[in-house]
Design goal:
Length: 263
């Protein structure tokens, strides 16, 4: 039975203040919850009987069997799923980021939850283990971002920090950013160490962060003389940038798929 008190507690996690105070976040849906259960501590799980019948041996403090109407009351989705879980938020140390030996993604005031969720998925796909976000970047553990990240939160460490202070610490290392005026990314040598900064959806990289970027890149449209839109969506731009960095790595040092020649 899902009590009114527990409904209120779960619904409160839509608000960042309560997520921070309690150190909790919500995920919904069979695939997403099943994925996150392998990586995060689950405090509470609410599910339909049919879901619970196929998931025995759950090591969770509070497992609640609910009906569809009860799930509707706590769901943050237009169409509630069979299961909703409340997880403990992970805590990562900023000192564990090492841009001198790997690529780090830095986000400057990203506001759209869908964009942030997509960027987290992209980071997971392209093997970027750490994302450092400015304090004004939207919360990576909001319900909308968690859903959009599709489980990638289990593989990417999200940090919130003073971005100016963080970048200044690594000023002698490559710090990349994308701009209207920059070096063509398809013709530029790209390092596999350093920091890639992606800026706000409307205004791009902020002026105070821009001065810390020492490698300015540009994603050209095609053909270059064709009249086109003013800019790319930040998640789309991130996909292009990450793909190009990894392509450059593959073309520079070669790539081994892990499969033997006779498979």
């Amino acid at each position: 039975m899902l009590s009114k008190v527990k409904i209120k507690e779960i619904r409160a996690l839509e608000i960042k203040k309560f997520r921070d105070e309690q150190g909790l976040f919500v995920a919904e849906g069979n695939k997403l919850v099943s994925h996150l259960l392998k990586s995060f501590i689950c405090e509470r799980l609410v599910a339909l009987p049919k879901w619970l019948s196929t998931h025995d041996g759950l090591r969770i403090k509070d497992v609640i069997e609910a009906d569809e109407n009860e799930l509707k009351k706590i769901s943050f989705l237009k169409t509630p799923q069979d299961v909703l879980a409340v997880f403990q938020k992970p805590c990562y140390a900023l000192e564990d980021t090492h841009p001198e030996s790997q690529l780090i993604l830095a986000l400057d005031n990203i506001q759209d939850p869908g964009n942030l969720g997509t960027i987290i998925r992209l980071s997971c796909w392209f093997g970027i283990e750490h994302i450092v976000c400015s304090p004004d970047t939207t919360d990576a553990f909001s319900p909308k971002v968690v859903q959009a990240s599709m489980g990638a939160l289990a593989h990417v460490n999200i940090h919130y920090a003073n971005l100016m202070a963080y970048l200044s610490k690594y000023a002698l290392h490559p710090i990349y950013g994308t701009f209207i005026h920059g070096e063509n990314i398809y013709q530029s040598p790209l390092s596999q160490q350093g920091i890639i900064v992606m800026g706000n959806e409307g205004s791009g990289i902020s002026p105070e962060i821009e001065v810390l970027v020492n490698r300015r890149l540009h994603i050209p449209s095609y053909p270059t003389d064709r009249l086109t839109i003013g800019s790319l969506n930040v998640a789309t731009a991130t996909a292009i940038v990450c793909s190009e960095f990894r392509r450059f790595c593959i073309s520079s040092i070669g790539y081994h798929s892990g499969k033997s020649d006779d498979t």
